[in-house]
Design brief:
The protein is of the alpha+beta class. Helix content is 43%, strand content 14%. It has 12 helices and 10 strands. The strands form 3 sheets. A 4-stranded mixed β-sheet has the order 3-2-9-10, with no helix packed on it. Strands 5-4-6-7 form a 4-stranded antiparallel β-sheet, with no helix packed on it. The protein has a two-stranded parallel sheet with strand order 1-8. A hairpin with a 2-residue loop joins strand 9 and strand 10. The protein is globular, with a radius of gyration of 22 Å. 29% of the residues are buried.
Length: 336
């Protein structure tokens, strides 16, 4: 049985893909990779589960402000890639749209504390400006996670470029398979199309890894009253296995919920593993409960439970269901 060709990369190359030093270090440790897909699986795990808040902010700050390209004297790989990613925006810009974009960029940074981040490849200035205005009303923690997701899109695009470049530079004595080069080119094309038309869910399904690196259901807690992670909160995940297909409003559900796992949030507010790592999660009704009364004895909620459904068509997807908590309110959303 033949061995796969492995692609070796250094920290500087990964730093060009994502401006977080921690990300680059962890990716270099995980290198070499047998394929672009393997590298992307590792990158997602490192970015979302290992890199901390400071690393996210470091990566954000490595980007030029949307609507302005790096200086012509800048010859770094990341600067050149950034210039190419904004080429459509700059080509479609007018003096008035650039001025409006600049004003909204300043307004955004003043509110959130970091620059507006979006995977700009293939997007016009008007499209970017519309998205900025749409995201501006978001709560800071929600916008922070959206920005992290956009950073991951940029990182995936640049990893594809990195693999393509390495492939083209390979010596004829040990060539990297042309099929992998084509995969990199295909992925860049598909990501570009996704940015302008395809839904995010379809792109996740297309590139779902056959081997997962984290459980399909995860959570974290943010204490919005303090602006910090909710540390030391007991978390429990359950699945509905009652006599009826689903729990019904008003009906007793005693004995219908089966515990999948429990954990306590760490210093970043993230829960530990709540269920097994599987390639496909069982469709059904799930419930995540948080012991908020113990965490905040003077608060309004003795505990908080979030009930959600995973459908057959979603069984290959990842579900991140965070809790944004204050003593007298809470909210949630489906994250990435």
């Amino acid at each position: 049985m033949g061995t796969k060709n492995m692609m070796e990369f250094g920290e500087d190359e990964f730093l060009a893909c994502c401006g977080s030093t921690r990300f680059a270090q962890e990716m270099a440790k995980a290198s070499p990779f047998s394929s672009l897909e393997e590298a992307i699986v590792a990158a997602r795990d490192i970015w979302f589960n290992i890199v901390d808040v400071n690393g996210w902010l470091q990566a954000f700050s490595a980007h030029p402000q949307i609507g302005s390209s790096p200086s012509s004297s800048s010859h770094s790989t990341s600067a050149q890639w950034s210039k190419g990613e904004q080429s459509t925006a700059l080509a479609t810009a007018t003096s008035s749209s650039l001025q409006e974009l600049d004003e909204w960029n300043a307004r955004y940074k003043e509110k959130f504390g970091f620059i507006f981040l979006i995977c700009a490849s293939g997007r016009s200035t008007d499209e970017i400006l519309a998205e900025l205005k749409k995201r501006y009303p978001n709560r800071p923690i929600v916008e922070f996670e959206i920005a992290a997701g956009e950073q991951m899109k940029v990182t995936e695009l640049r990893l594809a470029k990195l693999f393509s470049t390495k492939t083209n530079d390979s010596s004829t004595g040990n060539p990297y398979p042309e099929a992998v080069s084509k995969k990199a080119e295909d992925r860049m094309s598909i990501i570009g199309g996704h940015l302008t038309a395809a839904s995010e869910s379809s792109i996740r399904k297309t590139y779902q890894s056959p081997t997962q690196t984290r459980p399909p259901i995860t959570t974290h807690v943010l204490d919005v009253s303090r602006g910090s992670p909710g540390v030391g909160i007991e978390v429990q995940l359950e699945v509905w296995k009652g006599p009826q297909p689903r729990p019904l409003f008003g009906d007793p559900d005693t004995g219908g919920w089966i515990i999948q796992g429990s954990s306590v949030t760490d210093n970043d507010g993230r829960s530990g593993q709540l269920m097994s790592i599987v390639d496909a999660v069982d469709p059904g009704i799930y419930r995540i409960s948080f012991n908020t009364g113990k965490y905040c004895p003077g608060g309004f909620f003795p505990y908080v439970s979030i009930v959600f459904e995973i459908r057959e068509s979603q069984k290959l997807e990842h579900f991140h269901v965070p809790l944004l908590l204050s003593p007298f309110s809470f909210t949630t959303y489906r994250g990435s």
